[in-house]
Specification:
With about 190 residues, the chain is of the alpha/beta class. It has a domain of about 130 residues: Glutaredoxin (3-Layer(aba) Sandwich). It is built from 8 helices and 9 strands. Strand 1 and strand 2 form a beta hairpin. Helix 4 runs parallel beside helix 7 and helix 7 crosses helix 8. The longest helix has 14 residues. The termini are far apart. It comes from Salipiger mucosus DSM 16094. This is Thioredoxin SoxW. InterPro entries: SoxW (IPR041737), Thioredoxin-like_fold (IPR012336), Thioredoxin-like_sf (IPR036249), Thioredoxin_CS (IPR017937). Pfam families: Thioredoxin_2 (PF13098).
Length: about 190
Amino acid sequence: MKTWIAAAFAAALALPAWGAQMGDDGLYKEPWMRDTFKDLREDLAEANAEGKRLVLFVEQRGCVYCHKMHEEVFSDPEVSDYIGENYFVVQINLHGDTEITDLDGESLSEKAATQKWRVLFTPNIIFLPEEVPEDTSAIEASVAVMPGAFAKGTTIDMFTWVNEKRYLLDNGEDFQRYHARRIRERDDGNTD
């Protein structure tokens, strides 16, 4: 009996304490990720209808950096709540065979799309604008790409920077300057 209790306790500790669950495809599934038909034009329209920004999360099975992001960053309520409130998230499997339709209308597998988008490693987060010309692929239309695993501060700053449309030239603050300012503000205790 004691062995069973110890095993159950160990198994409980191994499960994520946040909202993410491991899917059948070996990728983490956050509560704010959408299960769509992966027609990116439809996803963009739905995101716009909800007043959210479309973002693509490219991940792969066994990715230690994806695990780190889900365990250490997306598990933080500030980050998770912000993403859930402001973003329409579609997950793309770097090596997946599920058919998707890119924003330019091309239908291809997830792995072919990620090759087309020149995604070399995971996680890779692709942020999209509200409007995309008909003949433009997701990577061509992207307003920002977050390649790799980053800490909470960098992640929340990137999601906020995109959501506030600071990438537009007339807003005058590129991401590096914005992020440096936000770090100083956090260090000074002025986070609002």
